[in-house]
Amino acid sequence: MRAHVVTFGCQMNEYDTHAIQSELAGLGYSLVEDYHDADLVLVNTCAVRGKPVEKANTLLGELRKQKQQRGGHLTIGLMGCLAQLPEGQRMGKKFNVDIMLGPGAITEIVPAIEKGRFQSFEFKSELQFYSPPPPQGAISANLTIMRGCNHRCTYCIVPMTRGDEVSRPAADIIQEARALYAAGVQEVTLLGQNVNSYGLDLGTGMRRKHLDGYPSFGALLRMVGRTGIPRLRFVTSHPINFDDEIMEAIADTPAVCRYIHLPVQSGSNRILKRMAREYTREFYLERVSRIRQLLPDATITTDIIVGFPGESEEDFQQTFALYQEVEYDTAYLFIYSEREGTAAQKHFDDIPKAVKTERLGRLIELQKQLSLQQNQKWVGREVEVLINGAAVEEGFVQGHTRGNHVVMLEGHLPPGIHQAQVLHATPNRLYCRAVGADAPLSQAHIKGGRSLPILPTKGLS
Ligand code: SAH
Ligand code: SF4
Ligand code: F3S
After folding, report:
1. Which of 95, 110, 154, 424 could form a disulfide with 431 if both were Cys (CB 3.0 to 4.6 A apart)?
2. What pTM was computed for the model?
3. Residues near ligand 3 with C-beta < 6 Å?
4. Per-residue confidence at 74, pLDDT binned at 50, 70, 90?
């Protein structure tokens, strides 16, 4: 039997896909590259915006056709966030899907496949966590430490798809991190919708910290940092819980990369309130200045929603000004997408598409300009690069710094950690040359190791 899993959405879905693939292999399935060759196709969906929903819709239509052509000999599974929603359940019926499995019951995948027709959407905390074996040959790996979300941002579907927050016991997390490191993984990313709310999920101010086995997020970073993994990352942090204890843990723990993704969504207090983000512009900026103070050189990135209902030109300009003030390294910029069942859909009117697109365009321009300015600060400096093999440009291998800048490294160095010097920067890349033990035999070396002046390499940008 042959299986294929299609993945849409965020890293949490990638992690789930990896876990599902391990389960499939355990059931005797071979995993094939092309879904046309598979007897079982699972679609791990995302519902956060209209686009990924459309993609799932198109794919399911394609699969239904395949199934008809094969006289019904194809099992189709709809998994992930869409499966949990009325919208996804309508799609499941429409496309005659065999298996429907929401994220709250993901570990029921084996009985689901064995039964052939199966539906499960109930959130059960004990059914939400896998400890999948390390991905083979991977240099970087994800590790989910909590699931769900206790916030209720008015635009967002995630609390409906992923349920309330559930943290995983620290001992399981440490064990999985150790297994990843032992398998050769050099970089682990701790995942959660609000990763820094780890351990806070007993509600009403009661911290699980008071229970055995659930430290605070800061303490967890220190613990995972001691496993020996060279690089430790985490996404996504909610500004409201990004406290000094976490910053201090990052500062004290060499493994933790100084890369902080801190979604702001809007720079206008009026819109933040409508979004129910629970913080003000001033609170957010205070957190950023504290990061700059305790973690100089940290990369700071964000998520922004452009054109939330009621966003005026003035509100947008406040977002624009906040972007300039923070000097983000980069950002994920989204056009507001109305989601069925959210508070924003019920209470507010969407604004015209042309207005949203025009504002997005202005923000993209600012992003390019600032990303270039931020990247240029690294020219001439030495950085640590993790090469993950993929070469997208002739004569280079691709990797990323601890701050998550994409690096093009000259030559053909093997996957792993290397030291390099930044020669040239573009808005989205740092072009580098290896130094130290990895350095190519160059003039600089022959003369006794002193670097020659750095000149931008021709033909780049
Ligand atoms: N839990 C994380 C990420 C949630 S989803 C957080 O709160 O930061 C990732 C991003 O998608 C969000 O940060 C937001 O910028 C964007 N997003 C969520 N719902 C959206 C919607 N309805 N329309 C447009 N963007 C949305
Ligand atoms: Fe969605 Fe807000 Fe929760 Fe993030 S914090 S997942 S944006 S509800
Ligand atoms: Fe999408 Fe679900 Fe992730 S809605 S962004 S796959 S949590």
Report:
1. 424
2. 0.92
3. 9-10, 12-13, 46-48, 80-81, 158, 161-162
4. very high
